[in-house]
Amino acid sequence: MSSGNLQPIQGMSDLSAPEIRLWQEIEGKARRILSLYGYEEIRTPVLEYTSVFTRSIGDATDIVQKEMYTFEDRGGRQISLRPEGTASVMRYAAGLGPEAEGLRLYYIGPMFRCERPQAGRKRQFHQLGSEMIGQASPAADVETLALQMHLLSSWGLEGCSVEINTRGLPEDRQAVAEGLAAALQPHREALCEDCRRRFDANILRILDCKKDACKKIADGLPPVTDFMSEASRQYLDEVKRLLDLLNIPVRLNPRLVRGLDYYVHTVWEITHGALGAQNAIAGGGRYRMEMDGRTIDGVGFAMGLERVVSALQAALQGQAPVAGERPVWLVSMGQKAFEENMVLAQTLRLRGLSCGFNLTPGSMKSQMRAANRAQAAQAIIRGDREIESGAFLLKNMADGVQQELDMPALLNTLLDSRIDPAHTPAKAETTNPAGSP
RNA sequence: GUGGGUGUAGCUCAGUUUGGCAGAGCACCAGGUUGUGGCCCUGGUCGUCGCGGGUUCAAAUCCCGUCAUCCACCCCA
């Protein structure tokens, strides 16, 4: 691979066959399931005023401070490529006013964060997310989680684990920070360098430090709920009770921290073991944000589609990838047959049959090779003899058997063969697809 | 932003230690079969060795710089 400038911008990539078929399948299933839960798609602009993100996600967060693509447009306005989807949907909802209450919206599309790329992290990546506006009730949080589990199982993605925690209400934050500070004060010198910095900058983050020394200290701390109000604790209890009712297996992780400022109450994260360091395929939670003087509540999730795809690919290891459609290949000997075949191709396609042919025919051998490469199910061979007699030589590419047919018989045979097409096993359409290795 | 690995044919990679003709497998094209693919055999096409500079009679190989990519940290989906 030479360098040159034929490659896309760093951290961005072209998605094409064959993986794109898996993407399409994932998206198609997702759209169906989201509609079962009453969600409608929303497509917001990829560019927003920078303030849409800074005010909701939080000025101090890493996303805003060092990861956004921000620039001035020709009119001197500060605009940014969206780093996530929730803020835009909230902007939309705030604009609707009271009408927005109860809205259920989902989005699928590219997001942009200017980070150093690594496994499971791109600068342009894709998220599928849902937002339910208002409905500040534990039942909404639990229904959202149920929807998400439904999506995962529809894709056949097994081996996910779900962790939940609570951020409490905004009013609890100061108490939580103070409580943690008091509890951590005696161990302050034993913390790692990063955590000593976090002590003042973002004390919650100490809870999920990966260093052994910090983990041990964090293990000894009281759960964050101890510092929260009674209302926050009751909310969490109700969420747990309802999750249990729906039989959704989650692990309560009192040290789970989520970085965005807008979260309140329930937060969660879904990870998958096959992913390496960036193992979170999805995150979600309840949020509350101020938009132009209005307070917007909601609950939603976001799933990283690249990560879902990698996890699925790991799970499907060794199994056939999603197959493309197998065409009929039209083989022509001579100019007359070639022209007749161009007409035939249109006839077949208008009847819903996938077909192809060499645009510059060449020898029969090369045309048959092309048929093979295109994974053709059958070939139709025509030369002067067939044109004269009006016959079609139909060859089954799998067993090599040929038969001579007239037009009606040809169409019948081809249409029949579409009814049980050679679908590969991996493309199972059951609700419980293969996935357990 | 920080640290490490890797850049050689369309793809996967040898060759770099110890400087000496640019390689293999797969893919592609053609022939073996004048109208029959896959398997097999034979032949063929495809290279600014990431880029720029330096050392040398001679550089893919050594030195300096640079870019890209992968992995990890930070953080997130």
Write a structural description.
The protein folds into 2 domains: 19-169 and 228-315, Bira Bifunctional Protein, Domain 2 (BirA Bifunctional Protein, domain 2); 328-419, 3-Layer(aba) Sandwich (Rossmann fold). Helix content is 37%, strand content 22%. The protein contains 14 helices and 16 strands. The strands form 3 sheets. It has an 8-stranded mixed beta sheet, with helices on both faces. It is elongated, with a radius of gyration of 28 Å. It binds one RNA strand of 77 nucleotides through α3, β6, β10, β11 and α10.
Mean model confidence by pLDDT: 89
Number of helices in the DSSP assignment: 14
CATH class of the largest domain: Alpha Beta
Rg over CA atoms, rounded to whole Å, is 28 Å
Low-pLDDT runs of 5+ residues are 421-437
Please list the strands of the largest sheet in the order they lie side by side.
Answer: 1-5-6-11-10-9-7-8
Tell me the name of the CATH homologous superfamily of the largest domain.
Bira Bifunctional Protein, Domain 2
Q: How many structural domains does the protein architecture include?
A: 2
Secondary-structure-derived class? alpha+beta
